[in-house]
Amino acid sequence: MFSLTRRASWLAICCMSLALAACHANRDDLARATPQSLYQRGSKQLKAQDFSNAVKTYEALTARFPFTDQARQARLDLMYAYYRQGERESAIDAADTFIRENPTHPRVDYAYYIKGLVDFERSANAFERFLRVDLTARTPTNARKSFVAFNTIIEKYPSSDYAHDALQRMIYLRNRLASYEVNVARYYFKRGAYVAAAQRAKEAVDDYDGAPAVREALQILVTSYERLSLGELAARARTLYQENYGSGSEKLAFADEKKHWWKFW
Are 217 and 252 in contact (CB under 8 A)? Predict the structure, then answer.
């Protein structure tokens, strides 16, 4: 038993020694490497989806040779490596730094794309999608940030390779943001806060044209103006509704809900 224990101890010590030797060798190797060899190594690791080591290699490259062409390219690859590694804040920081330091770089659109992608995927995790969580009731802070980043690509870099994907994601985000505004407007309307309801409904109509939720936003707008005795504004909203959705403005399903004496919300 003693012999087996001693052998196990020596084996553990040997393994630790080999691991330490490998770490030292790797650090020495990085220290002797050129910008080109470091970038090639990082690229191979990235293609192999070895994101952890790719991050280390790119970080070494940008730290040791910050003003080289390889370092500038590595900063773009590093954003993606951070993103795939799950280091989302690092990905955002790297993208922001690149945009600030290289505003005219031919691939600055990629930095905006990574920013949009990170916040887009923060909108709902897989578990929430599986449970079909109602995202319209949740403040869409990350969705707004993602929308702005993708919109920057569309407006500033319409010929970008990422423009089409950015536009498709913006349509999804537009629909979600519009649904959130309508959800808030509905909340205010049910509580008799017609000024606030009209304001949020108008924001949905003005900011998210084309979203499915705009139809209900116009209905809330018409009814809220009517409750406030703002006939001219109600007529304008009704006309806008008719131009887009046909004659008449459908009655809100919840407009005449009666509150029970025991219901305080």
Answer: no
Asked if 218 contacts 205 with a C-beta cutoff of 8 angstroms, the reply is yes
- Both tokens of 98, joined, read 């690149």
Report the run of H or E that residue 115 belongs to, with start and end.
helix 108-122
CA angle 66, 69, 72 (to 5 degrees): 60
Encoded tokens for 133 = 């969580």
Who's near 129: CB < 8 A, 6+ residues apart? Answer: none
Among 88, 58, 52, CA closest to 75: 58
Number of residues assigned to the chain = 265
Q: Which helix (H) or strand (E) holds 174?
A: helix 163-190
Helices (H) and strands (E) in the chain, counts: 12, 0
Q: How far apart are CA 191 and CA 189, in angstroms?
A: 5
What proportions of the chain, in percent to the nearest 5, are helix, strand and coil?
75, 0, 25
Written in H, E and C, the secondary structure of 26-89 is: HHHHHHHCCHHHHHHHHHHHHHCCCHHHHHHHHHHHHHHCCCCHHHHHHHHHHHHHHHHHCCHH
The model's pLDDT over 59-98, given as tens digits with 9 standing for 90+, comes to 999 999 999 999 999 999 999 999 999 999 999 999 999 9
At 248, the pLDDT band (50, 70, 90 cuts) reads low
DSSP single-letter state for residue 208: S
Q: Determine contact, residues 94/76, Cβ cutoff 8 Å.
A: no
